[in-house]
Write the structure tokens for this entry.
Amino acid sequence: MRSGGKAIVDSLVANGVDTVFCVPGESYIAVLDALYDVPGVRVISCRHEAAAANMAEAYGKLTGRPGICLVTRAPGATHASIGVHTAKQDSTPMILLVGQVARAMQGREAFQEIDYARVFGGLAKWAAQIDDEHRIPELMTRAFHLAVSGRPGPVVLALPEDVLTAEIDEGGDPGPATRVVPKPGAADLVRLRTMLAAAERPLMILGGSGWDADAAGAIRRFAERNNLPVACSFRRQALFDNRDPHYAGDLGIGPNPALAERVRSADLILAVGARLSEVPTSGYTLIEAPRPRQRFVHVYPDPDELGRVYQTDLAINAAPAPFARATAALEPVDAARWTDWTAGARRDYEAWRIPTQTGAKLDLAEVVRWLDERLPDDAILCNGAGNYNTWLHRFFRYKAFGTGLGPTSGAMGYGFPASIAAKLRHPERIVVAFAGDGCFTMSGHELSTAMQYGVNVVVLVINNGMYGTIRMHQERHYPGRVIATDLCNPDFVAYARSYGAHAALVERTAEFAPAFEAALAAGKPALLELRTDPDAITPRTTLNALREQSLAQQAAGTTAS
């Protein structure tokens, strides 16, 4: 006989899980006890459930297998919901296992009782409760199957305490869950080639999940054979080597205006793996819903997504990886008509990488450009949400698959926990986290986790003393009326050192390179505080310029009225 908790762990092992992230709780202590006897599964105990869920989500991104997070009842589960939401929007395979009150207590609003199927029903691909210990193998297998099949995403399973302590028969676990991966049909590929051959200004846009290094290489060869310009969706730049002459840039927040115009003027868009939601389409203006002006080919693994927002000229129900590999069988088309179009897209990207704001005491553009030249191709860069990311996304060239981790959900507090997961997965690689001061203080306590497990990441805290993105919107829409966006920050260097981490302050551009090299050589987690000019709100403008422009527009509107 074995406990229900051991049956849960046996299912994890059967599905190749090697790491779980958690904040311990008494509601699932039987699972923790079962993990004690499984040295092949590493248990990372975090300081907050939001960070644990973010780590699991990042691990799912890196591996293509479900990241596993264990949390306790309602407070733990709701803290972890941010990671579930990110996994949903980022199409990341993830399983959140939640302790639940015993079955006999349910329905009375017992201590920390909530209905997880109702709470997570709109966030997860599937949210359920295991009420029969004998069905643990079946329902755990279903969880793994759903997390990775079709459009990957999160699954939430509630585990009543008495289900975890009940005894069931030893054995009976099936093998690894089946992954259903849709593949393109031969007719789809023939029609795609016909449409491509008739185009004058084609553009391929890559995004989503379900890729691997081999598929990224295959889609790059397809672009080269057909001389296609390639853009990447929001925070998916690592799907295509940014140094390749076919790379045209990324469709993120505040994209290159030249690239935005190129999307509008394309006569054929081939979107592979990307949903093309609000951000990469600049609010559904670059590609209009429901009927795009461009001829539109959409390759996506979820048939319910195809045609949901955009009417397509060709919908291909296929996951990105098998589609990319299938393109090897396509004979290249005559691409002579768009030679200048592709070359122009590359020139626009190269011009975009030239800094326009210079002369700052600490120039983030120069910092990122130095990192771009210094870091090895396989270094992993992680980030959360905030205006500081505009420098990273604009001036850094991602060179290899799987080297960028950022939430397309726009979640703050993500970058630092994600870097811990990345370093645990790839201890031999350099891992750097970018975090604003507001972003870092949401998860900075995980320095304790990094120290405990010897996770030697380097986190760059970009400190401008405010919630910069919101301040930017304030000055744009309500100039001079600043409220709720100033931050009272700690001494970040002293804060990091109190955990035992290496730390240093950087206030000038010239100080960054030696400080970064010292951080890498420290042999322990490291933090560099980069104090920046709060007026430098983006690489293109300042807060003062935004305020003056908004005031001028308001004055002009008053005069006109």
Summary: The chain has three domains: 2-168, 186-352, 364-548. The radius of gyration is 24 Å.
